[in-house]
Structure formats: structure tokens, C-alpha cells
């Protein structure tokens, strides 16, 4: 038996409300409401809380703050070299308190704290968009957590329950190494799409439906007959999510 279970009178009983997970003969129960437990390779969205010596502290909805080492980030311009004292002094120019980043879990420390890296150009500082915080148990694990949706916006579904919705960039920046943020005004049409996506995600979470690119897109399409602000009405929420659930079942069937 694994986590979230106990034995009473030779019966295995769940100690938390959640989902049963079986790995070969090991039986665990994964709690529905829980803080994020990091696994190597996870994609996370986090907020810088502190700049320390050769490292940044990042809030990732875990029990302990995550760590992003200076040696685990790309330098602007993408050059590869040993980090010097000048780099250490310039750390605040790269990332400072309050900045949002996307990163990958590189390793887990013995106390359970997570070590992150942003070594690929798809990770790095996040610019303009909307952050939605949900329970990590509702984010479905997939091959990729970066999705450019056909409705004109993109989402990063962080395994840690932080979801970032942002306008789809017209061209991918290759040179900046993930530190330049586009602060141009976002057109109203894009802002409306982002607001609608945000309300759809809130609706899916309220109705306890798993979040992945297809469920979000179906929910977005089901919400189109309604005003953006009306999506948050409980009756409308239920109607939209019911339609989404039905389409997902048809897809699986």
C-alpha cells in the first residue's frame, strides 16, 4: 500500500478523498485538494519571491519555495560560460521579485523542495497575460503543456496548478534567451479571448473537470453564445461544462 491509505480489519481504506492510482501492485490515493508535489520533468509556472546568492526563490504552490539557480538559466544572448561575479550582481536585471516565469523541474532536494531550470528558449520570463490558480490535481499530465489554441490565445498549463493565458506571439523570439518581455498594448479582441478562456477555466474547475487543451477549447466553444461575464453564473457554468463533458465522452467513445 502507498500514500493516502491505511489498513483496518484487513481492509485497505483511503485516508484522503481523491483518486485511486495503481502502479503494478502499489495502491495510492492522490488527494484532490493538495499542495503541489514536484516530479522531475514537470512544467511549472511560478512567481519570484526572493533574490538570494546565486539563486532565486520561486513560489510554485508547493510546501516549500522552489529554487532556480543562476547556473540553471540561459544568459541573455544565449551564450554558454561559467557564471561570474558580474552575473551575480546583475541577477535582478534578469529576474526580480514579482516576475512570473515558466520553468521545468530539474531535480528534487532531499527535503522535498524543487530545483528548477529555464535552459530551453520556451521557458523564461512571462510577459503580458492572466494567471489562474487551480488545484494541481485538476491539471492533466500530457506530453506538452504549452498550447497555442486556435481561438487566438495560448496557455501554459503548469503541473503545479498555476495556469498562464497570454496572446499568441506572432513570431518566436530566438535571440533574447527568454528575458525580454513584450509590453506592447494588447488589442481588445485578444483581451476578450483571454478573459473568456479565464472564465471557462474557472467554470471547468468549479465543476471538477480535468484541464487539458481539448477540454478548455470545447468549453470555450460552448461558451460563445454567452457574454463573457455571464459564464461565471452557476447555471451557465453548469450548462457549458455539461456540453463540454458530453463532447469529451463522444470523443473517447
User: Given the helix and strand composition, which structural class is it?
Assistant: alpha+beta
In total, how many beta strands? 14
Order of helices and strands: EEEEEEEHHEEEEEEEHHH
The share of residues in extended strands comes to 25-35%
Taking the sheet with the most strands, its summary is: 5 strands, mixed, barrel
Distance between the termini: 33 Å
List keywords for this structure.
5 helices; flat; alpha+beta; 253 residues; four-stranded antiparallel β-sheet
What's the structural blueprint in terms of helices and strands?
Elements (H helix, E strand, L loop, with lengths): L4 E4 L2 E4 L3 E6 L2 E6 L11 E10 L2 E5 L6 E8 L11 H5 L1 H4 L5 E9 L5 E5 L5 E2 L4 E4 L12 E3 L4 E5 L4 E6 L20 H19 L6 H11 L10 H19 L1
Parallel strand pairs: 7-9
Antiparallel strand pairs: 1-2, 3-4, 5-6, 5-8, 6-7, 8-9, 8-10, 11-14, 12-13, 13-14
Helix pairs in contact: 3-4, 3-5, 4-5
InterPro entries: Exosome_cplx_N_dom, Exosome_RNA_bind1/RRP40/RRP4, KH_dom_type_1, KH_dom_type_1_sf, NA-bd_OB-fold, S1_RRP4
Family: Belongs to the RRP4 family.
Pfam families: ECR1_N, KH_6, S1_RRP4
Can you walk through the features of this model?
- The strands form four sheets. Strands 5-6-7-9-8 form a five-stranded mixed beta barrel. A four-stranded antiparallel β-sheet has the order 11-14-13-12, with helices on one face. It has a two-stranded antiparallel sheet with strand order 1-2.
- The radius of gyration is 20 Å and the shape is flat.
- The chain is of the alpha+beta class.
- It has a domain of 32 residues.
- Helix 3 crosses helix 5.
